[in-house]
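Good day; I would like, with your permission, to put a structural problem before you. A protein sequence and the structure tokens that stand for its backbone fold form the material at issue. Thank you for your consideration; the sequence and its tokens are set out here:
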Amino acid sequence: MKRLDSQQKKILDFLEFGGDETYTLMDIGENVGIDHPQKVQNKINQLENAGYLTKMSSGMYRVLKHYEEGNQLHIPFFGFAQCGHAGKTILEDEYPRKQIPVPSEYVDAHDAANYFITKAKGDSMEPFIHSGDLVLIKIQSGYQAEDMVLVVQNQQPKIKRIKAVGEQRFLLSLNKEHKDLELTPFDETHIVGVVKKVLEGVEE
């Protein structure tokens, strides 16, 4: 299947934004404008065969990759990530608000399901990232010293660099008006992913 039709795209969007729910074929059809459950099943079968969907043992469908339109891929958008002290304490949305089209060359199409977009808030990563910038993140735990990462420290997501000095680790800001933060053994910290690109010219 080379290109998705409009109904297949609507099914993917509905299942991705629908949260942790198990939907019947009739539920899906009513939400995407398909009038017969068998037609919905046919579309789902096509999406599964093309690697866009898989049905889990719970009966839920999981979206595996995002569809491409022309030279663009649609990537899910979540809420704010903190750059400094102005950000919110958690990503604003548990589920993506919507999908934002980005040029396909920004994303590894074979691993597109591991990309998402968030909005930076705060000035600690200036001049590279400004408050309000849309930032493309790839979900991964590994990173290089020069990478900017989305890290969650004590339930606060932050975009920073990480520096190791012996057994100590620090969260570094690019804006020197912000102090570096030392991570202690009492901090709950995990890497969400690596900043791949600041999406200049891409609208929310």
About this structure: The helical segments are 6-17, 25-32, 37-49.
